[in-house]
Structures are given as structure tokens and as C-alpha cells.
């Protein structure tokens, strides 16, 4: 049976939940799909590309329809969506952070954050560094309880607001 790229990604998420990232492999995924490992290379050049596709799918699934009123509300929304995606499946936080760090996937939240800051009037440097700071706050505090996360997010956003009004 021939599988579509989306079928492979969906099954990879199931395997991630069942086995965790340490046990996640192209061979294991192929066995779960009932194909030879070489069949996966029709869709992905290797494990890094598959990991990136899974991370991007988890982020896509975490998107929420929302009316964005301000740059701050957009940053808050992107941060919460990212955190929720990182908490949505076993080892999803590690997967998303890893592919982002390698530059092979999970780049959309950073682009959205930088775009919101630019629309708020930030120059390129502040948009780049501010978005990176906010992204890394989320990465570092993904497992905080909701109240602590919200307070920390407020503190980071207050700092960005202060920089924008200078």
C-alpha cells in the first residue's frame, strides 16, 4: 500500500506518542506503516526532514483562529500556541526545539513573532532579538504551571513594550 506524505506524518506522531523521541526511527515508522524503510525516502530525505515535518504539523494543529487586535495580543497568541503544541504530545517540546535549533523546521512561530514586532515599529534588530527572546522564553518555560507561564510572558512583553516606546 502506498502512503501519502500526510499519512506518514500522522503515523509518526502516533509513534512519537507511543515510543518517545529516543526510540523514534525511520525503521520503526516504516514497520508501523507496513513498508520498507526505503519507501519513506520517497517522501523525506531523512530523519531530520521527517522530524521537521512532524514539528511543523504539530505547530499547524495548534493554530487557533483569533482576531488579532494588537501586536502584543499577537505575540501572546503565538506564544500560547507554541507552548500548547509543545505540550500536545510526548516529547513534542524536545522535537520542536531540536528542529528549530537545527534550522530545519519549526520556524513559523519565530517569523510570526518578528513580524508582529516589526508591525509595532521595531527595527530589524529589535524584531529579531525580541522574537528570539520570546521564543526561548516559551522553550524554557513550557512545563511551568499556567499562572507562572502567564506572569513570565507578561514580564517579557512588558520589556518589549518598554523598548518599543523608547
Going by CATH, the homologous superfamily of the largest domain would be Tetracycline Repressor, domain 2
Radius of gyration: 18 Å
**Major β-sheet profile:** none
Please name the CATH architecture of the largest domain.
Answer: Orthogonal Bundle
Which structural class do the helices and strands define? mainly alpha
Mean pLDDT, as a whole number?
95
Overall number of structural domains? 2
Helix content: over 70%
Work out the strand percent: under 5%
Order of helices and strands: HHHHHHHHH
Q: Low-confidence runs (pLDDT<50, min 5 residues)?
A: none
- Gross morphology is elongated
Secondary structure: number of strands:
0
Number of helices: 9
CATH topology group of the largest domain: Tetracycline Repressor, domain 2
Amino-to-carboxy terminus distance: 61 Å
* Overall CATH class of the largest domain: Mainly Alpha
Domain HTH tetR-type: 2-62
Protein name: TetR family transcriptional regulator
Keywords: DNA-binding, Repressor, Transcription, Transcription regulation
DNA-binding region: 25-44
Task: Write a structural description.
The chain is an all-alpha fold and 166 residues long. The protein folds into two domains: 5-56, Arc Repressor Mutant, subunit A (Orthogonal Bundle), CATH 1.10.10; 66-164, Tetracycline Repressor, domain 2 (Orthogonal Bundle), CATH 1.10.357.10. Helix content is 72%, strand content 0%. The longest helix is centred in the last third of the chain and has 19 residues, at 146-164. It is elongated and about 60 Å long. It starts with a helix and ends with a helix.
Amino acid at each position: 500500500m502506498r502512503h501519502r506524505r500526510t499519512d506518514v506524518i500522522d503515523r509518526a506522531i502516533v509513534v512519537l506518542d507511543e515510543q518517545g523521541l529516543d526510540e523514534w526511527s525511520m525503521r520503526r515508522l516504516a514497520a508501523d506503516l507496513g513498508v520498507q524503510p526505503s519507501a519513506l525516502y520517497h517522501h523525506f530525505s531523512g530523519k531530520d526532514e521527517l522530524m521537521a515535518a512532524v514539528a511543523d504539523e504539530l505547530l499547524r494543529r495548534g493554530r487557533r483562529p483569533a482576531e488579532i487586535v494588537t501586536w502584543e495580543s499577537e505575540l501572546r497568541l503565538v506564544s500560547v500556541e507554541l507552548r500548547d503544541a509543545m505540550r500536545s504530545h510526548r516529547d513534542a517540546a524536545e522535537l520542536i526545539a531540536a528542529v528549530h535549533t537545527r534550522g530545519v523546521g519549526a520556524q513559523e512561530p519565530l517569523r510570526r513573532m518578528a513580524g508582529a514586532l516589526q508591525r509595532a515599529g521595531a527595527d530589524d534588530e529589535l524584531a529579531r532579538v525580541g522574537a528570539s527572546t520570546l521564543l526561548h522564553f516559551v522553550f524554557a518555560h513550557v512545563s511551568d504551571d499556567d499562572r507562572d507561564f502567564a506572569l513570565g510572558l507578561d514580564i517579557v512583553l512588558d520589556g518589549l513594550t518598554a523598548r518599543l516606546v523608547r
